[in-house]
Amino acid sequence: MEEWFGGHWWTTRSALLQFTTLLVFAPLISFKRVDSLRYTSALSVGLAVVFVAITAGVAIVKLMEGKIGMPRLMPKLVNQASFWKLFTAVPVIVTAFICHHNILPIENELEDPTQMKSIVRKSLIFCSFVYIATGFFGDHILDDVLANFDGDLGIPYSSLLGDLVRVSYGLHLMLVFPIVFFSFRLNVDGLLFPCAMPIAFDNRRFFSITIALMGFIFMGANFVPSIWDAFQFTGATAAVCVGFIFPAAITLGDAHGIATKNDRLISWMMIFLAVSTSTVAVTSDIYSIFSVDKGVIA
């Protein structure tokens, strides 16, 4: 915004976050049914496809013109520190595939709940395609993805394509947020009021929790300097627990006595790998913050 309109109070990060919260997030997070977000969610998926298509197109054109080399499929290790930094990417990837909290709310509103397994598989396949395509066609990707399109892309209509990518990706993130927030609010309410009536039937509790959570998120968005830092630590802790440790623990608990020996073995392996990777990742994150070593791995 500052690049397009110059430095004004309404183009600062804090002001834009306020406008986005009040004009976009507030109306969308006020819905009490996840089904009400189906159109915005579908639009966000389309915008993600636009981002990948343009990124791939730019990379292919520059590759054909010899302006860039073939994208690296393996990390570049320059020293021991860069090897340990590899583990900082794992939490970010784990975070990208965390969708467990959305499954039950969506399944509860499906006319045919048996479709949920198919929906999850198709979603994972689509997400994998988007992430792989972005990584393959986007060598030297910066922490802030949109910053990759700030300068000259070295192809015709560079400025137009750069603006289109930034607008589409920004809108994508804004439209994805309400779906994540819906489940977040539902789970927080379940933890705080386990015996109360469903939150959708209690307007006072619904809006109180919504305002409190949005206030917390707004403050974090203003004071966290880099989204990469947030993803590193939340991915290495909360995401690992939600994606691997908690499901494995539920299987080991086996309240209904249906888990097989193989299920228990896989669960123990999941917990071991999750705890090991998380420990290394958190250690590497802390080390990278305080270390002066600048070894590049990406």
What does this protein structure show overall?
The protein has 298 residues and is mainly α. The protein is 69% helix and 0% strand. It starts with a helix and ends in an 8-residue tail after the last helix. The C terminus is likely disordered.
Low-confidence stretches: 292-298
Question: Helical percent range?
Answer: 55-70%
Q: What does the main sheet amount to?
A: none
**What structural class is derived from the secondary structure elements?**
mainly alpha
The fraction of residues in strands falls at under 5%
Described by the principal axes of the CA atoms, the overall outline is globular
By oligomeric state, this entry counts as single chain
Number of H- or I-type helical stretches: 11
